[in-house]
Amino acid sequence: MSVRSRVRASVPFARRRPVGTLVLAAALLTAAVGLLVVALGPWRLGVGIAGTALVASSIARTLLPERQAGLLRIRRATADVLAMTALGVTMVMLALLVPDLARR
């Protein structure tokens, strides 16, 4: 048994999780908060929060090395980043550009 495998075996599993998994958990939590805000009324703010979470995830996917991407890594980095960025920017633009309905 090499020194590296002994050190790895002694580190608890939670500490060996890739950073990308934690980023994904934070993004999912942020998106859930955005959906909660949508459910409570101010839909623009909620959609903006959820879209921002997607854009932040795509930035993290760009910056993290392949081994640390964790659950953010679904396909190639290019496909992941393009998909998350497109969805996130679309949601933010939706929140900014859709006019309010006239209140009666």
Write the layout of secondary structure elements.
Elements: H1 3-10, H2 19-40, H3 43-63, H4 77-97
Helix pairs in contact: 2-3, 3-4
Structure description:
With 104 residues, the chain is mainly alpha-helical. The chain has one domain. It is 69% helix and 0% strand. It is built from 4 helices and no strands. The longest helix has 22 residues. The relative contact order is 0.15. The model has no long low-confidence stretch (mean pLDDT 82).
Annotation keywords:
single chain; 4 helices; mainly alpha; 104 residues; elongated
In short:
This protein is mainly α. It is built from four helices and no strands.
Order of helices and strands: HHHH
Strand fraction equals: under 5%
Based on CA inertia axes, which overall geometry fits?
elongated
What's the rounded overall pLDDT mean? 82
Let me know the number of strands: 0
Portion in helices: 55-70%
> Major beta sheet, specifics?
none
Gyration radius, to the nearest Å? Answer: 18 Å
